[in-house]
Fold this sequence. Notes:
Elements: E1 9-13, H1 19-38, H2 42-60, E2 66-73, E3 76-84, E4 90-98, H3 107-121, E5 126-129, H4 136-144
Parallel strand pairs: 4-5
Antiparallel strand pairs: 1-2, 2-3, 3-4
Helix pairs in contact: 1-2
Amino acid sequence: MPAIRPVEASYVNMPPGYRPNFFAKLVAYxxxxxxxxxxxxxxxxxxxxxxxxxxVQHDDAGLPHRNLVAAKWKKNIIGGAWYVAVPExxxxxxxxxxxxxxxxxxxxSRLLAHVAEQARAAKATGLVLHVFTANxxxxxxxxxxxxxxxxxxxxxxx
Length: 158
């Protein structure tokens, strides 16, 4: 596959018309992750994912350091990232998503690099994210980009 020329990839504020699609895909993705990592039924996982994302959206309204960026390639929006970049603190990457048809082509790496550039510009001290260990592709990508494991999230089924 030919390398994607930088001129074909760009990052913009996420257009309002794409946001419902982005959030629906985040819910679907998070539902699958919760099913795999926690053993939840699809229904329970979906409800948790939906409420989690809706809660963050609600908390997000009007806050100055929240960022919702769209990844574009050849004029098409192919994914996005949602992050909080506060000066003198670690930027928190809440979610990142690349459409299935565009995965494995370097778009996620470039989007993460863009988020890191924006975090640096905001004078953040680092970039932190959460990933389920079962999500091997994401873990591998993050490690390849220099992220290190700084802790563990643990789960006790009741």
